[in-house]
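Team,

Forwarding the record for the chain on the shared tracking sheet. I've put the sequence and predicted structure together so nobody has to dig through attachments.
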Amino acid sequence: MNSAISLHQKTLWLITIACTISIGSLYYNQPLLALISTDLQISVSDVSAVPTLTQIGYAIGLLLFVPLGDRIDRRKLIVGLSGLNAIALILAALSPSLFGLLTASCAIGLTAVVPQLLIPFAAQLADAEQRGRIVGTVMSGLLVGIILGRVAGGLVGGSLGWRSMFWIAAALMITLGIVLLKQLPFTVPSAINISYFGLLRSLPLLLSEHAALRTRSIAGAVLFASYSGFWAVLPFLLERPPFEFHSEVAGLFGLVGMISATASPWLGRMTDRTSPRLTLKIAIGLFAIALLILCQFYTTLWGLILGAVLLDLGTQTGQISNKAKIYSLPIEFHNRLTTIYMVIFFTGGAIGSWLFAYGLRFTS
């Protein structure tokens, strides 16, 4: 990629905004779980399978689609997946039963991997000394998308019903696909001579060859298990005494993450100036404090808010640190490195969602 494109701020902001919009598909359902449970007349443990299968689908999508970014033009791949994601969202809106919703949720996750094609693209354009800042900027868009996804899910679900959120999300993904088709630059694949199955066969080899990739993937999965589990059970905690809040409040709760979104570029610069190792230690410390607070004070509003803030900050710090580290590895492997890292990362998230939902029954 030539330097003219690599220095183009318009491209950076296009990628950042596209991450904001496309990541929301994974998170609209979280503040809607209590509404879905009531509407479909299903239990808390059953409806908790919705975010779990969404994350499992996402992990599978990362494995199947993201490696293709090393072999074909990312623009075509991104636009195609945006369209498929819109179809999956429409199927969720039309789902008459839990089975239909679970199937659609898995399809939503499967096709929602657009951000993980955009992030290595931005890292590829960045100079080595600016990679942390660039990844931090794009990750800020990602986190804003997660926050807005939860907020929008709660507000739209509370006002118009949970199905309306999926209809609106589908329209957004169709619009995004059209814009990206016209504006996203063409990319030259780095592994054009490798077959698709060759790309997949190379994944375990890359994992075995790079100790940093193994370490960062496991660390990311453990952190995200706690983060994802918290958000899977939050709507039910807020619905119970002493709070007795509705889905709108569960969605608005996501606004606490704006602190992390604002801090992301600064965290990226800190990673550039210090080291990914230091920022990972900071992330682990933030998570440890958050979990201690949540275990002791989950029945208080201030405890939930402070815990959410620290979890968001820890997640963002860990993600920027981990991705800055793995994107320092050879550029021709970046999409496959992303695949390995994010598959392990979201597998941890799926396990966390299930474990926290399972444990919630013992707090009743």
